[in-house]
């Protein structure tokens, strides 16, 4: 110990001795100590209560998640599709097929021509000389100055153009229980399946042909087909019920009741959404003058190859007409969102969420939060081979004002990203029939086309082509 | 501070008559006031500091049965309160640093004690943590590890605080300058 340390020690001892304080505890200090003890006890008890409350809330949320399972977990939904009123019972699938009216081809044009070509191998080297060919004269009198011969015919849909389908099973997207003529065969009706198919019958008024096109409709267990019209009787609609052999009486009664409700009605049709495809109606309500329905389905088609993009669509109807807003699947963040303003009735916020999201809360600017409802994607959306796997959710929340979307327990998006346009562009499909003739199919700017190898002139590589024209928006 | 092991006859601090708390005060707070005085240099401030530390400690240890560690908790509470109080009063500390020994003399309520008055005044100019480190080491006789524990710092930090505090005192008081250092 050096001098400084020794002197410090002495100094501290001397000074401390001189600072001796009375040994009795002041009453005020003891009171403060007492209050402090009680405060500690109260704070501890409150902390325990808060912890218990949080735990109970967590358990309650786990028991009653905000996620509504797909399929039969859906609630009752009342809406109008294309002007046709419908109420889907809880657990039933309601498909809005009306957008098909804008995209189904109505005419088919076939043209013939001749051309020469040289077959090449994989490296581009000629492998076989092909003799020249001359333009074909098929005698139809429809040949053009370019040497093409074209003919046009209507594309028929025996069961009409579908408006909606109501079923007790999940109908794959883009498919119907009555088929789309030559374009698409009817879906297989489950043994216990029941469905009601409502269509614009394109003025065919051929009920027997429609019944033939709709498997399960022949025995009329669901009641007679119903025909109804728009207000001016410009368009006629047909509703047909179908049922599998083991369908329950209760489900058949639901279909029959709906068919009966359509008897003799006159509707005010609305134009189909022109840029999107069919969708499953998962929720519907009315706020103020605006009716809305949330659909999970095809939100757009690729301009080049027509491949569909899946997502959420919010369809609205108000006195000024119909509108729609769409949200694609999230690819680089947990949630995508949009909203519709219902005026004084508030706001409906909706969107898509990745599989890692377990809940969504809307934080309102005025304070407070509104929990969103998460719904699983209908399994029927994955039925088309081109569609990505849908592991996440579609969601919505009815709020008094637009708030910030706050996903909970979010993780990296697990949904498969939608293939980009560039990845899909340029795909051509080829087929070979049983006689070895080639056909090439494609789609450009919304039109399907195909080339077929000519059978009469084997030297000509491709001698006819067909374009399916889009049906215009009515 | 006393290092004996109080028993308080098995009574807890929640005794309705408050006798256990009063006894705890009698046993430990006077030593706490002395420590606080060495830290602050002011008698009244030292009493306030020790009493506040006592209130905080008894509030936290309402079911204290083994009182062996109470003095250590009280010591640490006093030191922490002192340093945090001074942290809040940065302006006051800056003023003390500027005024130096004159300020220290002004806050002292005791008269000069022998020839060590200059050392006491020099102590008043040290930063709070350096002064606390010196008090804990040379008044409380704590080991470096215990002093570090009481001050809430690492072993290296307490060594540094003591060394820098001593160096600052030597710089102010030529008496303690090492041989050959004629500063």
Measured as a percent range, the helix fraction of chain B is 55-70%
Content-based structural category of chain B: mainly alpha
Spatial separation of the terminal alpha carbons of chain B: 37 Å
User: Biggest interface pair, residues each?
Assistant: A-B, 34 and 42 residues
Q: What does this entry look like structurally?
A:
The complex is a heterodimer of chains A (474) and B (183). Chain A is α+β, with helices and mostly antiparallel strands. In chain A, the strands form six sheets. Chain A has a ten-stranded mixed beta sheet with strand order 13-11-12-10-9-4-14-15-16-17, sandwiched between helices. Chain A has a six-stranded antiparallel beta sheet with strand order 8-5-28-27-26-25, with no helix packed on it. Chain A has a five-stranded mixed beta sheet with strand order 1-22-23-19-18, with no helix packed on it. In chain A, strand 20 and strand 21 form a beta hairpin. Chain A is elongated and about 125 Å long. The N and C termini of chain A lie far apart (104 Å). Chain B has 183 residues and is mainly alpha-helical. Helices cover 66% and strands 0% of the residues of chain B. Chain B has nine helices and no strands. In chain B, helix 1 crosses helix 2. Chain B starts with 18 loop residues before the first helix and ends in an 11-residue tail after the last helix. The N terminus of chain B is likely disordered. The interface between A and B is large, with 34 and 42 residues.
